[in-house]
From TrEMBL:
<dbReference type="Pfam" id="PF00530">
    <property type="entry name" value="SRCR"/>
</dbReference>
<dbReference type="InterPro" id="IPR001190">
    <property type="entry name" value="SRCR"/>
</dbReference>
<protein>
    <recommendedName>
        <fullName>SRCR domain-containing protein</fullName>
    </recommendedName>
</protein>
<keyword id="KW-0732">Signal</keyword>
<dbReference type="GO" id="GO:0016020">
    <property type="term" value="C:membrane"/>
</dbReference>
<keyword id="KW-1015">Disulfide bond</keyword>
<feature type="signal peptide">
    <location>
        <begin position="1"/>
        <end position="18"/>
    </location>
</feature>
<feature type="domain" description="SRCR">
    <location>
        <begin position="27"/>
        <end position="145"/>
    </location>
</feature>
<dbReference type="InterPro" id="IPR036772">
    <property type="entry name" value="SRCR-like_dom_sf"/>
</dbReference>
Amino acid sequence: MQMSLLGIFAFFVALVCAVQGQTRGTVRLVRNGVPDVSSAYSSGIVEIFYSASSSTTNIWGNICDDTSFGDSEANVICNQLGYNGVSTYGRAGSTSSYGTDTAATIVDDVKCTLSTYLTLDQCRLTTTISSFCASDTEDIYVSCSK
């Protein structure tokens, strides 16, 4: 069976994304705009690989800290990263510990009914971003328990 060049390219791109763990809903921590690619960070600004409301292509972006974000959501993020829950969480603008980043906010209104969910994909969220989330100071940060 002969594969077209486009088919081979699509397979290669999918393979690279899978190897790097970049599937929809993947989360990572960022400090001073530098993503944690070696799982060395247990705290930082949270980015999610998701499709923004104006796109069907997944990109890395931030999660807005709004009124629905709390203990359950922070615990799900830390559990998804392989940690034993969260020790602290909050708005990136409330601390200078993690610097700033330039990623756009692409997810808002995250609500996890249970803190035992394995990924944020099990939670309710929206890609319609409220004006409250326009500033990078509203980005989520977590400090996970080791």
